[in-house]
Amino acid sequence: MPLNIIFFGPPGAGKGTQAKIIEDKYGLKQLSTGDMLRAEIKAETELGLAAKKVMDRGELVSDQIVIDMIAGRVDSPECAKGVIFDGFPRTEAQALALDAMLKARGQSIDIVMELKVDDGALVARIEKRAKEEGRSDDNVEALKNRLAQYRSYSAEVLPYYNAPREIAVIDGMAPIADVTVQIENILNLGQAA
Ligand code: AMP
């Protein structure tokens, strides 16, 4: 059976970094709606140009856009071993749509992990990433808004996943390799590597 995981956490928590490590080591597929949107922007598609304005303000793009993006990917052969959902779902409507998509395939979300990092550390990490990657939403104003958005959408989405299972809390302040070990332990993957 595929293993489907959600990585939940604020901007700069390390979701993308950890998702890529787990993808490389275990063959799960990272699906990041943020990365998909940035690819649309880079390709200068109509969708990308419209999304950029919203993203640059640090606000959420519409549910239908991200739901369609995910729906277009979950059946690809790369997802056969399972998916790490990174930055999705961010609303209850997205969570419901994801559940329906997976259910239609006889699957479900196996585990939800919340990466926790102090706000101060997030700001420092985003400032560093701004220099390295030049993302147009990695600036102080947009970040403030993205953190505010995170607080509001996590209050909406986390309770949805808190029952019947528990959300696994990860200490995202630890060094990268230690965070990976925490994730592997929760997934019981460590020994298989
Ligand atoms: P991220 O790379 O996950 O931080 O996402 C960057 C930006 O893309 C966010 O600030 C939103 O504007 C947009 N975005 C990414 N994923 C979603 C989502 N699931 N729902 C709505 N907007 C999203």
In summary, what is this structure?
The protein is of the alpha/beta class. It has one domain (5-188): P-loop containing nucleotide triphosphate hydrolases (Rossmann fold).
Structural notes for this entry:
This protein is α/β, with parallel strands linked by helices and 193 residues long. The chain has one domain: P-loop containing nucleotide triphosphate hydrolases (Rossmann fold, 3-Layer(aba) Sandwich). It is built from 8 helices and 5 strands, in the order βαβαααβαβααβα. The chain has a 5-stranded parallel beta sheet with strand order 2-3-1-4-5. Helix 1 (15-26) packs across helix 8 (176-187). The chain is globular and about 40 Å long. Bound molecules: adenosine monophosphate. Adenosine monophosphate binds at residues 11, 33-34, 37, 54-55, 58-61, 66, 87-90, 94, 137, 146.
